[in-house]
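INTERNAL AUDIT FORM
Audit reference: QA-55
Scope: verify that the stored structure record matches its stored sequence.
Auditor: D.O.
Record contents follow.
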Amino acid sequence: MLLSLVLHMYSMCCVLPAAVLLGTAPTYVLAWGAWRLLSAFLPSRFYQAVDDRLYCIYQSMVLFFFENCTGVQILLYGDLPKNKENIIYLANHQSTVDWIVADMLAIRQNALGHVRYVLKDGLKWLPLYGCYFSQHGGIYVKRSAKFNEKEMRKKLQSYINAGAPMYLVIFPEGTRYNPELTKVISASQTFAAQEVAFEGTVDDKGQRKEAPSMAEFLCKECPKIHIHIDRIDKKDVPEEQVYMKRWLHERFEIKDKLLIEFYDSLDPERRNKFPGESVNSKLSLKKTLPSFLILSGLTAGMLMTEAGRKLYVKTWIYGTLIGCLWVSIKA
């Protein structure tokens, strides 16, 4: 019986965070929707400031589970985040939670509410959040590159004109590497050869290796996330498209070399670490626990009354339908 209880509690470690993150979605969307209506006739900067604050609250709750409840160690290398600033965050993309790493760095710069993503087009159909991400400044793009570039530029320019803080997250690889998708890999290699583009890490058969993410949990007993950061000044980034592509390819060459050294270094002392000293960055509960208590408390309060439960269910149903209709027209 004791063993069954232990196994049940272990399974709840995964179920509970997922239930809370999904369960508080209607509460969050209702709060955001109310503010959207109230701020309709106010200058956009007022709406943006409160929207960023609301987003910070939700994402802080996400980090409460990822950082404070898992016992994970965050090891930072390189140019450590310090002050809040407008940045473009470029990272490799090989795990479903790579976006969490961007949140981890943003909260350490007090910029969590300013995070905005370039997202794959399919995510716009997510219940409730698909529409909200677009409203928060997210940009949906199609992997085929057949997207409305003019509209994308217009949206970004509107944020610049409004003076909105920007922590823009982009995964230039576009998708996670999957060794089972042989046709996709072959087509990608052919395109790379034609474009004389960066081919990534290859083995002796000319096949691209699966490069593990920098944000990988390295052991079950003592999970660690190693994050290497390289801050690049805006003036050092080429503006012309041809040179920009080459520059981006070179950055990913550097990234792959770091990962090869991290996992396969001949020197055991250099394995499982990035160059330089690491900093064990511990996130204070003060930054995440209040958000968890606020959102879970409001959701629990709503579900305790019959009227609240009806509103909750209707938000899921009608909010999803209206959101899908909105993004099909606007996003």
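Auditor finding: record pair retrieved intact. Strands lie at 73-78, 87-90, 115-120, 139-141, 167-170, 224-229, 279-280.
Action required: none
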